[in-house]
Amino acid sequence: MAGPWWRQCRRWSTKCPNTGLFETLRHFNGGSASSLGRSPWSSGAGNEGRPSPLSTQINLKTLNFTSSLTRHKSRLLVHTLPSCCYRKIHSDAKPKDPFTLAQSDLKSLYDDIRKELFVSKEELKFLCDYYFDGKGKSIRPMIVVLMARALNIHSNRAGDLLPGQRAIAMISEMIHTASLVHDDVIDGSDKRRGKNTINNMWGERKAILVGDFILSAASMALARIGNITVVKVLSQVIEDLVRGEFMQLGSKENENERFKHYLEKTFKKTASLIANSCKAVSILVNSDPEVHEIAYQYGKNVGIAFQLVDDVLDFTSGASHLGKPTAADLKLGLATGPVLFACQQFPELHAMIMRRFSSKGDVDRAWQYVLQSDGVQQTNFLAQRYCQEAIRQISMLRPSPERDALIRLTEMVLTRDK
Questions:
Q1: What is this structure's pTM?
Q2: Cβ neighbours of residue 153 closer than 8 Å, sequence gap 6 or more
Q3: Strand pairing partners for 195?
Q4: Which tens digits make up the pLDDT trace of 370-405?
Q5: Are 140 and 176 in contact (CB under 8 A)?
């Protein structure tokens, strides 16, 4: 397939808007169905959460959609619904709102987290509880709760959460929040979720200690689950968060390596937590590695799509919606999806990316270039591809309200405005 990856991606989006995922990827790869998926996804030791590279030619492997297109289904898997067919099949029964379906499980979640963070020192406790006010989106624990219930039903059990599964939902939110506290210190952020950051209010030293304390409490809760495999899977998240942060500190000279770098960083900083949390709740209820992989792949693809949309919102949504300043990524020197796509139409961005938008006027010029390009649209399109794969994966589970809510969640990820 000739031509740079960005031109092929644009051609893909214009020529194949209505084809199914399998056919679209097959067309994009320029090969036959028999050539797809020769290298299986690996979720074994040392490989969990490591997406395939994005090379010069964006093909199946680069979008991390490779192996399971031709994977043999487990005897436990009921059926596979192609992502393009879901709406047609379910047109007579709209899935329940994910937030409504998970509400009863999430209602006391933050109270339980605050109990985990109990300390006698009043100031430390106040700082630890600062973000656990129940006013966040709760996306991660909601996905974990819905995935756990869907997997329980798939595994011929009652849909109710197991104690360990509920603990994983709490732990996922604790790890996420601890990472936010540390990120705000690294980025020098003064706003988070519409309120002053901990580092802005109480200083960087206390913020670092608070993040460490939340992480230690999450580790204690994880140890109490008593499952070594679950401990290993969720420990991978912490490693990925650190590696992702280091990746964010660097830039790639080569254009195509830069996009690979961006997607890998996106996985490690955002999607790994969702993917491995979903896998962890599956381990507690089902021994089939194929089922574990379904849960993992759904979380990975939704997580990457979520961050891609977040990167778009940095250009399209006002600060009042996001709860943080717009163009925040550019101001931090970060070249996200919209910028990388725009770079193909405006090569002037290349030098700005390499100097991390540090020269006077770089941020404003880069902003204008992105808005004049189709970078936002192409990033949105890429997010749609990831959501389609998430739908394809979760549709392998036995039908349940929770499974269908996870499918509907992909639409909410794509259409959110904050």
A1: 0.78
A2: 159, 398, 400, 402, 403
A3: 192
A4: 999 999 999 999 999 999 999 999 999 999 999 999
A5: yes
